[in-house]
Protein backbone atom coordinates (compact mmCIF):
# COMPACT_ATOMS: atom_id res chain seq x y z
CA UNK A 1 0.00 0.00 0.00
CA UNK A 2 1.17 3.52 -0.72
CA UNK A 3 2.24 5.69 2.17
CA UNK A 4 -0.23 7.79 4.05
CA UNK A 5 -1.32 11.21 2.91
CA UNK A 6 -1.73 13.82 5.63
CA UNK A 7 -4.10 16.74 5.32
CA UNK A 8 -4.51 20.03 7.06
CA UNK A 9 -7.19 22.48 5.94
CA UNK A 10 -6.26 23.93 2.56
CA UNK A 11 -2.97 22.06 2.42
CA UNK A 12 -1.79 18.62 1.28
CA UNK A 13 1.44 16.93 2.24
CA UNK A 14 2.29 13.70 0.44
CA UNK A 15 4.44 11.44 2.57
CA UNK A 16 6.27 9.99 -0.41
CA UNK A 17 7.54 11.37 -3.69
CA UNK A 18 5.38 14.21 -5.06
CA UNK A 19 2.73 13.33 -7.59
CA UNK A 20 -0.02 11.54 -5.72
CA UNK A 21 -3.20 10.35 -7.45
CA UNK A 22 -6.55 11.87 -6.55
CA UNK A 23 -9.45 9.42 -6.97
CA UNK A 24 -12.98 10.81 -6.83
CA UNK A 25 -15.85 8.53 -5.88
CA UNK A 26 -13.44 6.70 -3.57
CA UNK A 27 -16.25 5.18 -1.51
CA UNK A 28 -17.99 3.72 -4.57
CA UNK A 29 -17.74 0.23 -6.00
CA UNK A 30 -15.34 1.11 -8.81
CA UNK A 31 -13.58 4.01 -7.10
CA UNK A 32 -12.69 2.04 -3.98
CA UNK A 33 -11.35 -0.84 -6.05
CA UNK A 34 -9.17 1.58 -8.03
CA UNK A 35 -7.86 3.16 -4.82
CA UNK A 36 -6.81 -0.25 -3.51
CA UNK A 37 -5.18 -1.26 -6.81
CA UNK A 38 -3.20 1.97 -7.08
CA UNK A 39 -2.01 1.70 -3.49
CA UNK A 40 -1.02 -1.93 -4.01
CA UNK A 41 1.11 -0.74 -6.93
CA UNK A 42 2.85 1.79 -4.69
CA UNK A 43 0.95 4.91 -5.73
CA UNK A 44 0.13 7.42 -2.97
CA UNK A 45 -3.60 8.05 -3.26
CA UNK A 46 -5.99 10.70 -1.97
CA UNK A 47 -9.57 9.47 -2.11
CA UNK A 48 -12.34 12.06 -2.35
CA UNK A 49 -15.99 11.22 -1.69
CA UNK A 50 -18.94 12.75 0.08
CA UNK A 51 -19.25 9.51 2.06
CA UNK A 52 -16.68 8.51 4.69
CA UNK A 53 -15.08 5.15 3.99
CA UNK A 54 -11.76 3.34 4.53
CA UNK A 55 -10.70 4.66 1.11
CA UNK A 56 -11.92 8.25 1.59
CA UNK A 57 -9.23 10.74 2.60
CA UNK A 58 -11.20 13.91 1.94
CA UNK A 59 -14.93 13.94 2.67
CA UNK A 60 -16.40 16.46 0.24
CA UNK A 61 -19.19 16.89 -2.28
CA UNK A 62 -17.77 17.58 -5.75
CA UNK A 63 -20.38 20.30 -6.16
CA UNK A 64 -18.43 22.29 -3.56
CA UNK A 65 -14.95 22.90 -5.05
CA UNK A 66 -13.78 24.78 -1.97
CA UNK A 67 -14.14 21.55 0.01
CA UNK A 68 -11.86 19.45 -2.18
CA UNK A 69 -9.63 21.75 -4.26
CA UNK A 70 -6.74 21.50 -1.77
CA UNK A 71 -6.48 17.75 -2.47
CA UNK A 72 -5.07 18.58 -5.91
CA UNK A 73 -2.01 20.40 -4.58
CA UNK A 74 1.00 18.38 -5.72
CA UNK A 75 -1.11 15.76 -7.51
CA UNK A 76 0.32 14.14 -10.60
CA UNK A 77 -2.90 12.48 -11.76
CA UNK A 78 -6.65 12.46 -11.20
CA UNK A 79 -8.96 9.48 -11.65
CA UNK A 80 -12.54 10.73 -11.82
CA UNK A 81 -15.09 8.01 -11.05
CA UNK A 82 -17.69 10.00 -9.07
CA UNK A 83 -21.06 10.20 -10.81
CA UNK A 84 -24.74 9.49 -10.66
CA UNK A 85 -25.34 6.18 -12.42
CA UNK A 86 -27.99 4.37 -14.45
CA UNK A 87 -29.89 3.10 -11.37
CA UNK A 88 -30.45 6.75 -10.40
CA UNK A 89 -32.35 7.48 -13.63
CA UNK A 90 -35.95 8.31 -12.80
CA UNK A 91 -35.07 8.50 -9.10
CA UNK A 92 -32.86 11.58 -8.96
CA UNK A 93 -33.75 14.85 -10.75
CA UNK A 94 -32.20 15.39 -14.16
CA UNK A 95 -30.75 18.68 -12.95
CA UNK A 96 -28.77 16.72 -10.39
CA UNK A 97 -27.32 14.52 -13.14
CA UNK A 98 -26.08 17.66 -14.87
CA UNK A 99 -24.69 19.13 -11.63
CA UNK A 100 -22.78 16.00 -10.63
CA UNK A 101 -21.88 14.38 -13.93
CA UNK A 102 -21.19 17.47 -16.02
CA UNK A 103 -20.70 20.65 -13.99
CA UNK A 104 -18.62 18.96 -11.29
CA UNK A 105 -16.48 17.34 -13.99
CA UNK A 106 -15.88 20.74 -15.55
CA UNK A 107 -14.92 22.20 -12.16
CA UNK A 108 -12.57 19.30 -11.48
CA UNK A 109 -10.90 19.66 -14.87
CA UNK A 110 -10.36 23.39 -14.39
CA UNK A 111 -8.99 22.92 -10.87
CA UNK A 112 -6.75 20.05 -11.99
CA UNK A 113 -5.29 22.09 -14.82
CA UNK A 114 -4.69 25.05 -12.50
CA UNK A 115 -2.95 22.77 -9.99
CA UNK A 116 -0.55 21.44 -12.62
CA UNK A 117 -1.98 17.92 -12.77
CA UNK A 118 -0.35 16.07 -15.66
CA UNK A 119 -2.82 13.22 -16.21
CA UNK A 120 -6.63 13.08 -16.03
CA UNK A 121 -8.37 9.71 -16.31
CA UNK A 122 -12.15 9.76 -16.65
CA UNK A 123 -14.15 6.64 -15.81
CA UNK A 124 -16.93 6.52 -18.36
CA UNK A 125 -19.23 3.67 -19.38
CA UNK A 126 -20.07 1.59 -22.43
CA UNK A 127 -23.64 2.63 -21.67
CA UNK A 128 -22.99 5.83 -23.64
CA UNK A 129 -23.36 3.86 -26.89
CA UNK A 130 -27.05 3.73 -26.02
CA UNK A 131 -29.38 2.90 -28.91
CA UNK A 132 -26.39 2.07 -31.09
CA UNK A 133 -26.20 -1.21 -29.14
CA UNK A 134 -29.53 -2.39 -30.53
CA UNK A 135 -28.82 -5.17 -33.06
CA UNK A 136 -30.63 -5.92 -36.29
CA UNK A 137 -29.39 -9.12 -37.93
CA UNK A 138 -25.99 -9.34 -36.24
CA UNK A 139 -24.45 -8.67 -32.86
CA UNK A 140 -23.10 -5.12 -32.75
CA UNK A 141 -19.29 -5.02 -32.87
CA UNK A 142 -18.67 -2.21 -30.40
CA UNK A 143 -15.47 -0.32 -31.05
CA UNK A 144 -14.79 3.28 -30.10
CA UNK A 145 -15.73 4.29 -33.66
CA UNK A 146 -19.37 3.33 -33.13
CA UNK A 147 -21.43 6.53 -33.02
CA UNK A 148 -23.05 6.98 -29.61
CA UNK A 149 -26.84 7.35 -29.45
CA UNK A 150 -27.67 8.13 -25.79
CA UNK A 151 -30.86 6.62 -24.37
CA UNK A 152 -31.32 8.56 -21.16
CA UNK A 153 -29.99 11.32 -18.91
CA UNK A 154 -27.22 9.07 -17.61
CA UNK A 155 -25.88 8.37 -21.10
CA UNK A 156 -26.27 12.02 -22.10
CA UNK A 157 -24.40 13.40 -19.11
CA UNK A 158 -21.60 10.83 -19.23
CA UNK A 159 -21.08 11.64 -22.89
CA UNK A 160 -21.14 15.38 -22.16
CA UNK A 161 -18.50 14.83 -19.47
CA UNK A 162 -16.36 12.87 -21.94
CA UNK A 163 -16.42 15.82 -24.32
CA UNK A 164 -15.28 18.14 -21.53
CA UNK A 165 -12.44 15.78 -20.61
CA UNK A 166 -11.24 15.43 -24.19
CA UNK A 167 -11.44 19.18 -24.83
CA UNK A 168 -9.27 19.81 -21.74
CA UNK A 169 -6.32 17.96 -23.26
CA UNK A 170 -3.21 20.08 -23.57
CA UNK A 171 -0.57 20.48 -20.91
CA UNK A 172 -2.70 17.94 -19.03
CA UNK A 173 -3.19 14.70 -20.97
CA UNK A 174 -6.66 13.19 -20.75
CA UNK A 175 -8.18 9.78 -21.42
CA UNK A 176 -11.72 8.40 -21.09
CA UNK A 177 -12.14 4.73 -20.17
CA UNK A 178 -15.53 3.33 -21.16
CA UNK A 179 -15.81 0.40 -18.80
CA UNK A 180 -18.11 -2.52 -19.50
CA UNK A 181 -20.52 -4.08 -17.02
CA UNK A 182 -18.66 -4.88 -13.79
CA UNK A 183 -21.11 -4.78 -10.89
CA UNK A 184 -22.09 -7.85 -8.83
CA UNK A 185 -24.72 -10.12 -10.35
CA UNK A 186 -25.97 -13.70 -9.83
CA UNK A 187 -23.33 -16.21 -11.00
CA UNK A 188 -25.29 -17.48 -14.02
CA UNK A 189 -25.94 -13.93 -15.24
CA UNK A 190 -22.35 -12.92 -14.58
CA UNK A 191 -21.07 -15.89 -16.58
CA UNK A 192 -23.25 -15.08 -19.59
CA UNK A 193 -22.21 -11.44 -19.52
CA UNK A 194 -18.53 -12.38 -19.36
CA UNK A 195 -18.96 -13.83 -22.83
CA UNK A 196 -19.56 -10.48 -24.52
CA UNK A 197 -20.35 -7.47 -22.31
CA UNK A 198 -18.91 -8.00 -18.82
CA UNK A 199 -15.50 -7.29 -17.34
CA UNK A 200 -13.90 -8.33 -14.07
CA UNK A 201 -13.15 -5.59 -11.57
CA UNK A 202 -9.51 -6.69 -11.48
CA UNK A 203 -9.23 -5.89 -15.19
CA UNK A 204 -11.01 -2.55 -14.68
CA UNK A 205 -8.58 -1.50 -11.98
CA UNK A 206 -5.57 -2.68 -13.99
CA UNK A 207 -6.76 -0.55 -16.91
CA UNK A 208 -6.90 2.49 -14.65
CA UNK A 209 -3.42 1.81 -13.30
CA UNK A 210 -2.13 1.57 -16.86
CA UNK A 211 -3.92 4.81 -17.75
CA UNK A 212 -2.42 6.65 -14.78
CA UNK A 213 1.07 5.45 -15.62
CA UNK A 214 0.68 5.60 -19.39
CA UNK A 215 2.48 8.00 -21.70
CA UNK A 216 0.88 11.32 -22.57
CA UNK A 217 -0.02 10.10 -26.04
CA UNK A 218 -2.25 7.42 -24.44
CA UNK A 219 -5.30 9.61 -24.86
CA UNK A 220 -8.80 9.73 -26.29
CA UNK A 221 -11.60 7.24 -25.66
CA UNK A 222 -10.91 3.57 -24.90
CA UNK A 223 -13.24 0.63 -24.29
CA UNK A 224 -12.35 -1.50 -21.28
CA UNK A 225 -13.98 -4.91 -21.53
CA UNK A 226 -13.20 -8.57 -20.97
CA UNK A 227 -11.32 -11.16 -23.03
CA UNK A 228 -13.86 -12.48 -25.53
CA UNK A 229 -13.11 -15.20 -28.12
CA UNK A 230 -15.18 -13.69 -30.93
CA UNK A 231 -14.41 -12.20 -34.33
CA UNK A 232 -16.40 -9.61 -36.22
CA UNK A 233 -17.53 -12.25 -38.72
CA UNK A 234 -19.23 -14.15 -35.87
CA UNK A 235 -21.87 -11.43 -35.59
CA UNK A 236 -24.68 -13.29 -37.34
CA UNK A 237 -24.29 -16.52 -35.39
CA UNK A 238 -23.84 -14.69 -32.11
CA UNK A 239 -27.16 -13.00 -32.73
CA UNK A 240 -29.10 -16.10 -33.78
CA UNK A 241 -27.36 -19.21 -32.40
CA UNK A 242 -24.54 -18.41 -29.97
CA UNK A 243 -24.88 -21.72 -28.11
CA UNK A 244 -23.64 -23.66 -31.13
CA UNK A 245 -20.70 -21.29 -31.62
CA UNK A 246 -19.78 -21.44 -27.92
CA UNK A 247 -19.93 -25.24 -27.94
CA UNK A 248 -17.66 -25.49 -30.99
CA UNK A 249 -15.15 -22.74 -30.23
CA UNK A 250 -14.90 -22.91 -26.44
CA UNK A 251 -16.27 -26.35 -25.48
CA UNK A 252 -14.81 -26.11 -21.99
CA UNK A 253 -17.01 -23.08 -21.35
CA UNK A 254 -20.10 -24.87 -22.63
CA UNK A 255 -19.22 -27.79 -20.36
CA UNK A 256 -18.78 -25.44 -17.42
CA UNK A 257 -22.21 -23.93 -17.96
CA UNK A 258 -23.63 -27.45 -18.11
CA UNK A 259 -21.97 -28.50 -14.85
CA UNK A 260 -23.63 -25.62 -13.04
CA UNK A 261 -26.98 -26.04 -14.75
CA UNK A 262 -26.67 -22.61 -16.38
CA UNK A 263 -28.27 -22.01 -19.74
CA UNK A 264 -26.09 -20.75 -22.55
CA UNK A 265 -27.29 -17.48 -24.07
CA UNK A 266 -29.86 -17.84 -26.84
CA UNK A 267 -28.85 -14.53 -28.42
CA UNK A 268 -25.91 -12.15 -28.03
CA UNK A 269 -26.67 -8.59 -29.05
CA UNK A 270 -23.22 -6.98 -28.83
CA UNK A 271 -19.52 -7.54 -28.29
CA UNK A 272 -17.43 -4.86 -26.60
CA UNK A 273 -14.00 -4.59 -28.18
CA UNK A 274 -10.92 -3.48 -26.20
CA UNK A 275 -8.33 -3.82 -28.95
CA UNK A 276 -7.54 -0.11 -28.99
CA UNK A 277 -6.86 -0.10 -25.23
CA UNK A 278 -4.46 -2.96 -25.86
CA UNK A 279 -2.60 -0.94 -28.47
CA UNK A 280 -2.57 2.33 -26.53
CA UNK A 281 -2.22 1.20 -22.91
CA UNK A 282 -1.01 -2.37 -23.18
CA UNK A 283 -4.31 -3.47 -21.62
CA UNK A 284 -4.70 -7.26 -21.62
CA UNK A 285 -7.84 -8.44 -19.82
CA UNK A 286 -7.21 -11.75 -18.07
CA UNK A 287 -10.30 -12.61 -16.09
CA UNK A 288 -12.99 -13.71 -18.50
CA UNK A 289 -15.63 -16.41 -18.33
CA UNK A 290 -13.03 -19.21 -18.11
CA UNK A 291 -11.58 -17.76 -14.91
CA UNK A 292 -15.04 -17.25 -13.48
CA UNK A 293 -16.04 -20.85 -14.19
CA UNK A 294 -12.81 -22.15 -12.67
CA UNK A 295 -13.49 -20.20 -9.49
CA UNK A 296 -17.09 -21.39 -9.39
CA UNK A 297 -15.92 -24.99 -9.73
CA UNK A 298 -13.41 -24.53 -6.91
CA UNK A 299 -16.18 -23.10 -4.72
CA UNK A 300 -18.33 -26.15 -5.49
CA UNK A 301 -15.45 -28.53 -4.68
CA UNK A 302 -13.19 -26.93 -2.05
CA UNK A 303 -9.83 -28.59 -1.32
CA UNK A 304 -10.07 -31.40 1.21
CA UNK A 305 -6.38 -31.79 2.04
CA UNK A 306 -4.76 -29.97 4.91
CA UNK A 307 -7.94 -29.46 6.90
CA UNK A 308 -8.96 -30.90 10.23
CA UNK A 309 -10.30 -34.46 10.24
CA UNK A 310 -14.04 -34.79 10.82
CA UNK A 311 -14.99 -35.53 14.39
From TrEMBL:
The keyword Oxidoreductase applies. This is NAD-dependent epimerase/dehydratase. InterPro entries: Epimerase_deHydtase, NAD(P)-bd_dom_sf, NAD(P)_dehydrat-like. Belongs to the NAD(P)-dependent epimerase/dehydratase family. Dihydroflavonol-4-reductase subfamily. Transmembrane segments: none annotated. GO terms for molecular function: oxidoreductase activity, acting on the CH-OH group of donors, NAD or NADP as acceptor. Keywords: Oxidoreductase. The keyword Aminoacyl-tRNA synthetase does not apply. PANTHER family: NAD DEPENDENT EPIMERASE/DEHYDRATASE, STEROL-4-ALPHA-CARBOXYLATE 3-DEHYDROGENASE, DECARBOXYLATING. Residues 21-180 form the NAD-dependent epimerase/dehydratase domain.
Amino acid sequence: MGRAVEFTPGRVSVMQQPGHVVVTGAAGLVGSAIVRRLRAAGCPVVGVDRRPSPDTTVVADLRDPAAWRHALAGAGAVVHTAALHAPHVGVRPEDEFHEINVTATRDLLEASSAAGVRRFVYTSSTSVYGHALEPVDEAVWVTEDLVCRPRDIYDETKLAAERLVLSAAGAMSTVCLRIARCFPEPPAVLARHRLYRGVDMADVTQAHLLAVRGPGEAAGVLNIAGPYPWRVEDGGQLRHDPADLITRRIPEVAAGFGRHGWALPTSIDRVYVSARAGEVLGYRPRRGVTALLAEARTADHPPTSGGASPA
